[in-house]
Design a protein that fits this description.
The protein is an alpha/beta fold. It has 14 helices and 17 strands. Helix 9 crosses helix 10. The protein is globular, with a radius of gyration of 28 Å. The N and C termini lie far apart (about 65 Å).
C-alpha cells in the first residue's frame, strides 16, 4: 500500500487518548523515543518498543519490566492489536513502512521525521495537577511549545485552585467531585529550608488548592503571603500548652478540618519526615480515616550546606553522611544518638537543632576520638537573605559561634567536606 498523501489537515481534531492497558508500538530506541516513552508509561499504555538498540534510559525501562523490547527492526505484524504507533526514527523509508502498515490497520501513527506524512501529531504538553493542557501549533512544534509555555506561566501564577466553571460560579459540584470533597483530605508538604522558591512544584500546587494551612515557624513567609484571602491560616508555632500538647493540638486540627470536608495542607519547614513529626501526623489522620498525601521537601540537612559551599559528600573526601538531631544533650537520658559511634565515622556529620548543645556535642565527639582539628561549619538561616556561615574546627566551633552571636535555625557540619571546595586544601581530591 502506498504512503498516505502528503497533505496535512488544516484543522486537526483534538482528542485525549485513554491508553491504560492498550498496546502502543514505539519504533526506534533513540533520543526521540526516550522523550516520548515516559508519557506513554505514565498513561498506563502497554508499550512495545521495537529497535535493534536502546538508549540507557529506555534500557532501564525494559529491564524494570515497564515495557517490552524487541531488539530488531520493525515488521508489520508488530502493529497487530495496537491502538497507536509512534515512529521515532530518522530513516524516512523505515518510517514510511510503519506508516503504511498502520494505515492498513487503521491505526493512528505519529512520525517524528515527517509531520505531514503522519496521521497524528504529538502536542506540546504541560501538566498542573489533574489538569493537562495539550497544544497543537498547526504542525509547527516551536509555535506549540511557545503557546504551551505561556499557558504554563499562567497556571503557575494562578492563586486559587483550578475548579470547574460550575464550581467557580457557585453551582453545585457534580456527584463525583462532591463525594471527593465531602471527606476532606490532608497533605503533608515540605516547604524546603527557607527560600520560598525551593518548595516543590507539587507542594506549591497543593498550597494553592488549600482551604486550611497549618504552618510551622520555619516555613518561608512569602509562601504564606501568596495564600488566598479566604484560606484559614493556623500558626502551629503559637499553639499553647507545651511541646507534647502542641503536637496533639496540631493533630486534632488536621483531623477536624479534614473531617469537615476541608482541603488541609500541613506546611512544614524542610522535609515532613526529617525531624518534622510528619509520621505522627500521618498516623493521627490514618486512625481517623483521613486520606493523606505526603509531598517530600528539600531538606535543610543537604540544601543548607550545599548553598554555603559545603557538599555533604565529595569524591575522595567523604563517601557517607549522617544526619542527627542535637536538640537533646549527649549525656541526657533521653538521647537516642550514639555519639561515641559517630565519633569514629570518617564521613560527614550533619547536626540539626544542635546549636544549644554544640559545646557538649563537640566535647563528646573529641572525647571519643574525633580529631579536635576536624573542620566544622555552622550555617545560620541557610538559603535566605539572612544566611551567615562560620567555618572553624571541632574544638573551637562552639566558642566561635557564641562570639559571633549565631542563633537558630542553624545547621552544623563536621568533617573534611567543610574545606572540600577550598582550592589547595588538604580535603580537595587530586
Amino acid at each position: 500500500m502506498s504512503e498516505p498523501a502528503r497533505e496535512a489537515s488544516p484543522s486537526p481534531y483534538p482528542l485525549g487518548l485513554r491508553l491504560a492497558g492498550r498496546r502502543v508500538v514505539v519504533v526506534g530506541g533513540g533520543a526521540v523515543a526516550t522523550r516520548r516513552v515516559p508519557a506513554l508509561l505514565d498513561a498506563g499504555a502497554d508499550v512495545l518498543l521495537v529497535s535493534p538498540e536502546l538508549t540507557p534510559a529506555l534500557r532501564a525501562h525494559a529491564d524494570a519490566g515497564r515495557l517490552r523490547w524487541e531488539p530488531r527492526r520493525f515488521v508489520a505484524g508488530d502493529l497487530d492489536g495496537a491502538w497507536l504507533a509512534q515512529v521515532a526514527v530518522d530513516d524516512r523509508a523505515a518510517a514510511a513502512a510503519v506508516s503504511a502498515a498502520a494505515a492498513e490497520r487503521r491505526i493512528f501513527c505519529v512520525r517524528a521525521d515527517d509531520r505531514v506524512a503522519a496521521s497524528a501529531w504529538t502536542p506540546a504538553v504541560t501538566r498542573h495537577g489533574p489538569v493537562t493542557v495539550a497544544v497543537l501549533g498547526g504542525g509547527d512544534p516551536h509555535r506549540a511549545m511557545a503557546v504551551r509555555d505561556a499557558v504554563r506561566t499562567l497556571l503557575s501564577a494562578r492563586k486559587g485552585p483550578l475548579l470547574t466553571p460550575s464550581v467557580e460560579e457557585g453551582a453545585p459540584l457534580n456527584t463525583a467531585a462532591a463525594t471527593a470533597t465531602a471527606g476532606g483530605r490532608v497533605a503533608l508538604v515540605g516547604a524546603g529550608p527557607g527560600d520560598p522558591e525551593l518548595i516543590t512544584v507539587k507542594g506549591w500546587r497543593l498550597l494553592t488548592e488549600a482551604e486550611v494551612v497549618v504552618a510551622d515557624r520555619l516555613v518561608p513567609g512569602l509562601l504564606l503571603d501568596e495564600l488566598r484571602s479566604d484560606v484559614e491560616l493556623v500558626d502551629a508555632s503559637k499553639i499553647p500548652y507545651g511541646p507534647s500538647r502542641t503536637q496533639e493540638e496540631i493533630n486534632r486540627i488536621l483531623v477536624e478540618r479534614a473531617l469537615a470536608g476541608k482541603v488541609v495542607v500541613r506546611l512544614k519547614g524542610g522535609d515532613p519526615y526529617v525531624f518534622g513529626r510528619g509520621g505522627e501526623e500521618l498516623l493521627a489522620c490514618a486512625e481517623a480515616g483521613v486520606p493523606v498525601t505526603v509531598v517530600p521537601g528539600v531538606t535543610s540537612a543537604v540544601a543548607v550546606p550545599g548553598v554555603a559551599g559545603v557538599p555533604v559528600t565529595h569524591r575522595a573526601v567523604a563517601h557517607e553522611f549522617t544526619v542527627v538531631s542535637g536538640h537533646v544533650a549527649p549525656d541526657a537520658p533521653a538521647s537516642l544518638v550514639r555519639w561515641e559511634s559517630l565519633a569514629g565515622l570518617r564521613g560527614t556529620l550533619v547536626i540539626l537543632m544542635g546549636l544549644k548543645n554544640l559545646a557538649a556535642i563537640s566535647a563528646t565527639l573529641i572525647a571519643h576520638g574525633k580529631p579536635p582539628h576536624t573542620p566544622a561549619a555552622v550555617i545560620q538561616e541557610g538559603t535566605t537573605a539572612a544566611q551567615r556561615t562560620l567555618r572553624s574546627t571541632l574544638d573551637a566551633v562552639a566558642a566561635e559561634v557564641t562570639a559571633a552571636a549565631l542563633r537558630p535555625p542553624a545547621i552544623v557540619v563536621i568533617g573534611d567536606v567543610v574545606d572540600a571546595l577550598t582550592p589547595g586544601s588538604s580535603a580537595t581530591p587530586r
